[in-house]
Amino acid sequence: MLGMVPIVIEQSGRGERSYDIYSRLLRERIIFLVGPVNDQTANLVVAQLLFLESENPDKDISLYINSPGGSVSAGMAIYDTMQFVKPEVSTLCTGMAASMGAFLLAAGAKGKRFSLPNSRIMIHQPLGGAKAKPRISKSRRVKSCTCASA
């Protein structure tokens, strides 16, 4: 099933129209970030954010995230665009948001960051030039909630 994209067929007074599922969801202002964060996925997400802002700068955008993380520079391009566009960006974790995926999940508008009940979120120590290496000695479940639909 990998690589296959479902098609949605809509009936109207003018006949049938078919969409790939992601185009149909984009009409509902839903963007998917699935898989590693890299230059290609960042380019797609940034383009969709800018497109939706141009369509209606006053209506919220939803970003659904299922990502193991990835490139910092690609993730920062998404983050900067989320902060730049006028519509508020709601984020929702479906499955996993790890590393840069978790960072982008946290970048959603205040009060509009969600996680489905069985999703997992993982934040780790930054990698890179720091000499000190602080460690997280314990982990715990911060909060369990029943989330309403986003």
TrEMBL record:
Q: Which domain of life is it from?
A: Bacteria
CDD domains hit by this protein: S14_ClpP_2
Q: Which residues form the active site?
A: 124
Q: What GO terms fall under cellular component here? A: endopeptidase Clp complex
Give this protein's Gene Ontology molecular function annotations. ATP-dependent peptidase activity; ATPase binding; serine-type endopeptidase activity
InterPro entries with a match to the protein in the record? ClpP, ClpP/crotonase-like_dom_sf, ClpP/TepA, ClpP_His_AS
Which GO BP terms, alphabetically?
protein quality control for misfolded or incompletely synthesized proteins
Q: Which PROSITE patterns match?
A: CLP_PROTEASE_HIS
- Per the record, the coiled-coil ranges are none
Provide the alphabetized UniProt keywords.
Answer: Cytoplasm, Hydrolase, Protease, Serine protease
Reactions catalysed according to its record: Hydrolysis of proteins to small peptides in the presence of ATP and magnesium. alpha-casein is the usual test substrate. In the absence of ATP, only oligopeptides shorter than five residues are hydrolyzed (such as succinyl-Leu-Tyr-|-NHMec, and Leu-Tyr-Leu-|-Tyr-Trp, in which cleavage of the -Tyr-|-Leu- and -Tyr-|-Trp bonds also occurs)
Similarity remark = Belongs to the peptidase S14 family.
Checking PANTHER family in the record gives:
ATP-DEPENDENT CLP PROTEASE PROTEOLYTIC SUBUNIT (PTHR10381:SF70)
Name of the featured protein? ATP-dependent Clp protease proteolytic subunit
